[in-house]
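Regression test case RT-17, inverse folding.

Input:
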């Protein structure tokens, strides 16, 4: 039980860190070996998980195929994304370490050496920022929904185990009562002795079941509290996921 409690605390700690607000800044990063204007945010998450989530996001939300260019770069080639620009372009996603952090950058190129930026393409750059924010919400929602599913499954398992123990508890209680009535009518001392021993064992089992049920109820309460916290974080996600950003 202590192990389960520590796992829950660890899960909530990770979730709290995951709930930290995101700041997006316009920076120049290397895309295809060229300095390119991009929206950049610190994510400090597993790159592989974020990359796979972006592939799903592009497909689910925009029916676009994001291809893995290398270990740290994704590309939607000749992207048709009117929410960003009415001009077809290449959308790049890059992950890179910097000062003990992991950063994620998103850039939109209109040509070999032309990338949108806030000075020349303010509307498109603002749209790209909204696109990035939409992905962050998508990714964090995936994470929270995974935790919700895990907690719901655990509560279901615990509840089934509790019902099983409650049923066995009631059965033992009825058995003890039945044996006690038999003892009152029994005249053979040997039989009475054996019946008493049977009840002693049943009462010990009842006490054990009682402890098990208390622990199960406590664990259900803890997991339910975790579930409530996660659902609350998910509900607040869209409005509280981001800090006010500044342009570099």
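Golden output:
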């Amino acid at each position: 039980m202590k192990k389960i409690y520590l796992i829950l605390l660890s899960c909530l700690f990770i979730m709290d860190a995951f709930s930290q607000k995101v700041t997006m800044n316009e920076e120049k990063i290397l895309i295809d070996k060229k300095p390119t204007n991009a929206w950049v945010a610190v994510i400090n998450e597993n790159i592989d998980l974020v990359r796979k989530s972006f592939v799903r996001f592009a497909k689910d939300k925009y029916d676009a195929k994001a291809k893995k260019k290398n270990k740290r770069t994704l590309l939607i080639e000749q992207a048709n994304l009117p929410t960003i620009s009415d001009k077809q372009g290449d959308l790049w996603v890059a992950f890179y370490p910097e000062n003990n952090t992991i950063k994620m950058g998103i850039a939109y190129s209109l040509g070999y050496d032309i990338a949108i930026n806030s000075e020349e393409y303010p509307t498109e750059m603002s749209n790209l920022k909204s696109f990035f924010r939409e992905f962050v919400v998508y990714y964090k929602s995936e994470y929270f929904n995974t935790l919700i599913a895990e907690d719901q499954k655990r509560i279901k398992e615990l509840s089934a185990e509790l019902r099983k123990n409650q049923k066995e508890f009631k059965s033992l209680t009825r058995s003890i009562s039945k044996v006690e009535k038999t003892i009152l009518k029994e005249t053979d001392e040997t039989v009475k002795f054996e019946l008493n021993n049977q009840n002693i064992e049943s009462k010990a089992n009842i006490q054990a079941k009682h402890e098990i049920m208390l622990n199960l109820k406590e664990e259900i309460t803890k997991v339910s509290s975790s579930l409530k916290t996660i659902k609350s974080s998910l509900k607040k996600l869209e409005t509280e996921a981001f800090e006010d950003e500044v342009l570099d």
